[in-house]
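Most newcomers find our protein records easier to grasp once they have seen one. To make this concrete, we reproduce a full record directly below:

…
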Amino acid sequence: MQLDRTQALRYLGYGKNEPDARTAALLGECAAEIEALSTIRTIHRVYPDLCVTADTVSIGGVVFGSRDLAKTLAGCGRAVILCATLGAEADRLRLRCSSTDLAKAAVMDAAQSAYIEQVCDRFCETFRESFEAAGLNLTARYSPGYGDLSIRYQPQLLALADAPRRIGLICSDSCMLLPQKSVTAVIGLTAGEPHCGDRCKSCENYAVCRYRRQDGV
């Protein structure tokens, strides 16, 4: 899978502007190194015992307090826990760049952030296709840190997917994912029309965030 360089530039703060020649060259180097990573992994687990109230969601016996997540999963009969990571190799790439070329380190960080989102997007598209025949639709994926869903739920999501054992994905005491370029998310499965919501605009930092997509979603 090729890096979406437009999204990487968005993470760098370029928006719709063209990068200078040096940045463009660095982005090409980083793209090649990221696309060659051998440690990229995605895992998922489907839970049929989903229970949604106005401000809580229960999955596999774990209760998440979040009105925004509850709104996203309203009407869903099942939940999918997704975990994805670029792996420790990606962290080592950034570390090497940080010790030799700070400009490249910044580009590498942005490019990896864009790439892990692409990994998740591709998973969702493939997963969506596999359930369409059964008449089921997917909601948008929702991660700790979106809206009012606290990152303190990271350990529970990792446990629900058995991510530490299956792909070596853990979190620190401050609930930051390790390896760092990783994502955990909840996705709903529904027989009706999914409520996708607006993940960006539900965030309290929407107005000041320079990383949001240009269309705000």
Observations:
- Residues 5-208 form a domain with the NADH Oxidase fold (CATH 3.40.109.40).
